[in-house]
């Protein structure tokens, strides 16, 4: 059982060369050179071990299930060999070991069965204690080996749990990064939408104000044209009266006064028109200044959002 457990752990490492923390159906095919099974038989073994049907095997599912499978296979093989008068051979060993094996080989074989090389960097302390028990207290050697089995089994389970936690952590980090990217894209879309709405409202307001000024200017120009026409009519009347009789002098004087008043009105209207044009120029300059200020405000808002974006990216780096 110890040998099969150690071999199952080796098979898991062979299948999971990338260190994913789980074994897929394709990874299982790497055991073809290691086991006397065909591709179809390996497929059946994978389906049997994948009890939950999720398409992958955790270290616990793989090692436990494959150990039971191998134990069943070799128990069947031993029964067949005993029936045929042959001696069953343990797994891993390709030659029958005699009782006269040297201590070095026995200890190395024990460490291989336990998978100690994957856990310990230095086996000298364990080897010294094992040799001392073998020499001085041989009756305690089996108890010591059982203790080693439990210790290395727990260490292997802890390592498998660590791999599973690392895999889960990687998935959570990937999911969090995806969520941050989604939030970042939503924020960019919101910034773009608000910027377009802001510019659209500002443009519409400027166009409305410009139209109002143009209407006022057109009205002033029409009033001026009316005054000019009225002046021309009065001048024509004055010319006709001056060519008339002497009795019309008083009337002419009145017309001249009226003409002077009209000239004053014309000058006043011209002055008002000039003021209106100056006011239009001032308003146009003010509108241009307001447009520049709005552009600067949009730039400041964009810069603020960029700083917030940098802060989010730094938080993402810290979380990673």
What would CATH call the homologous superfamily of the domain at 1-74? EF-hand
Low-confidence stretches: 85-100
Beta percentage is under 5%
Mind summarizing the main beta sheet? 2 strands, antiparallel
C-alpha Rg (nearest Å): 50 Å
Query: Roughly how much helix do the residues carry, as a percent range?
Result: over 70%
Biggest sheet: strand arrangement: 1-2
CATH architecture annotation name of the domain at 1-74: Orthogonal Bundle
Gross geometry: rod-shaped
Order of helices and strands: HEHHEHHHHH
CATH class category name of the domain at 1-74: Mainly Alpha
In the CATH scheme, what's the topology name of the domain at 1-74?
A: Recoverin, domain 1
Strand pairing plus helix content: what structural class? mainly alpha
Number of strands: 2
Compute the number of helices: 8
**Mean pLDDT across all amino acids:** 77
The N- and C-terminal alpha carbons lie at a distance of 42 Å
Organism: Manacus vitellinus
Coiled coil: 141-293
GO molecular function: calcium ion binding
Keywords: Calcium, Coiled coil, Metal-binding, Repeat
